[in-house]
Structures are given as structure tokens and as C-alpha cells.
Amino acid sequence: MKMTTALLIANPCDDEEDNMAMLCCHSSQGDMFLMTRYPDEDELEITLGDEPSTLDGVKVTLSATLLKIEIAAADADALNGDDVLEITHSSDAADLAEVELTLQNILKGTGTYISQL
């Protein structure tokens, strides 16, 4: 599955939401992607559209123009039947440090983060 977004919205630790780490974007087609994790939880949550899915073992790769999310084939229903979501983004390079920190917080102990920055 592929999406295009102008901006990745990240919050590594939302004080108003019990320190939840959150990454979000809206595609140019109007779809919303949301990945969250509370610090005391063992799994992360991905929401694509309306239905959230709880997952572990997620692999995320971030580059200057691409966010690639890979999940187990058994969890493909979380990504509308796909096990890979590629989000092409136009985020400002200065904002990517916060995106990277957010991904590290979300994936710590439950997934794999790969930086290509």
C-alpha cells in the first residue's frame, strides 16, 4: 500500500495523553494514518481509516522522503490487506529529528527502527 503526504506529524511524548508517543499523517487522497504507543504498553497501535489494530514486531524505516512500515503477513488486515505501507512525505528536514525520536519511542522493545537519514 502506498500513500503520499505533505507532512508527518509527530509527538514523542504527549503530556496531555499519558505520555503517549504519536505519529500521524493525512494522505493527499484524504486517508489518515496513525501510529501510537503508551510507554507502559508492550504493543503499538496502528489506525488506518477507522479501525485501530494492536501490533508488535513492526519494522519501520525512515528516510528523508519515505516512511516504510512493515508488519507480519498475519496482521495484514491492519493495512487493508497489505503487509507494507510506504508513505512518501515532504516533511522539512528540520522536523525529522522529532519524527525519529517519536518512532524510537513507539518501537522501543516492540519493533525495529531503521534510520536512513
Describe the model.
The protein has one helix spanning 96-107, and strands spanning 2-5, 9-14, 20-26, 32-37, 44-48, 51-55, 58-62, 66-70, 84-89, 111-115. It is mostly beta strands and 117 residues long. It has one domain. A hairpin with a 6-residue loop joins β4 and β5. The protein is globular. The two termini are 22 Å apart. 27% of the residues are buried.
Uncertain parts: none
Total helical elements? 1
**Helix/sheet category:** mainly beta
Helix content: 10-25%
Strand content: over 45%
Largest sheet: 5 strands, mixed
Q: Mean of the pLDDT scores?
A: 95
Cα(first) to Cα(last) distance is 22 Å
Give me the count of strands.
Answer: 10
For the biggest β-sheet, the strand order reads 1-9-8-7-10
Q: Could you state the order of secondary-structure elements as H and E?
A: EEEEEEEEEHE
Number of domains: 1
Could you say which overall geometry the principal axes of the C-alpha atoms support?
globular
Radius of gyration: 13 Å
What attributes characterize this protein structure?
single chain; 117 residues; mainly beta; 5-stranded antiparallel beta sheet; 5-stranded mixed beta sheet; 10% helix
What is the element layout, followed by pairings?
Elements: E1 2-5, E2 9-14, E3 20-26, E4 32-37, E5 44-48, E6 51-55, E7 58-62, E8 66-70, E9 84-89, H1 96-107, E10 111-115
Parallel strand pairs: 1-9, 7-10
Antiparallel strand pairs: 2-3, 3-4, 4-5, 5-6, 7-8, 8-9
